[in-house]
């Protein structure tokens, strides 16, 4: 089994606001890439970040702190140099997320007057 030279970080929260805050803080804290997120039942969501080991650790720590402030952090973890099968699983998650994103359209501008957004 071959290991990869990067690290994989995961931040699991309860609720989307905490996840968004975690992903934003992680991306701003270090040179990492937020690759995807995954939703589970009962509002449990996980965001995945990749980069070098020290950057991912710093990003996950910052993201976990942000999730705690905004909502509820369930777990966070960093896998340095994951086995070659782990990236395949993450790529599968990314392709599933892209398929879901195609079915969701967000408005490009907020309507004047704060009216309801059209979908």
TrEMBL record:
Tagged with keyword Nuclease: no
Name of the protein: BMC domain-containing protein
Disordered: annotated segments: 97-119
Regions that span the bilayer: none
Key words of the record: Bacterial microcompartment
Domain BMC: 7-91
GO CC, one annotated term: bacterial microcompartment
Stated family: Belongs to the bacterial microcompartments protein family.
InterPro entries: BMC_dom, BMC_shell, CcmK-like_sf, CcmK/CsoS1_BMC
Acidic residues composition bias: residue spans: 109-119
Pfam families in the record: BMC
Compartments, record wording: Bacterial microcompartment
């Amino acid at each position: 089994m071959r290991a990869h030279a990067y690290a994989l970080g995961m931040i699991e929260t309860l609720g989307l606001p905490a996840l968004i805050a975690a992903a934003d803080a992680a991306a701003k804290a270090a040179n990492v890439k937020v690759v995807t997120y995954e939703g589970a039942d009962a509002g449990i969501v996980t965001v995945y970040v990749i980069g070098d080991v020290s950057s991912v650790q710093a990003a996950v720590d910052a993201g976990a702190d942000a999730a705690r402030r905004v909502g509820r952090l369930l777990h966070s973890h960093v896998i340095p140099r994951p086995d070659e099968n782990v990236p395949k699983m993450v790529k599968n998650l990314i392709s599933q997320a892209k398929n879901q994103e195609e079915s969701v359209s967000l408005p490009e501008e907020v309507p004047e007057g704060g009216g309801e957004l059209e979908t």
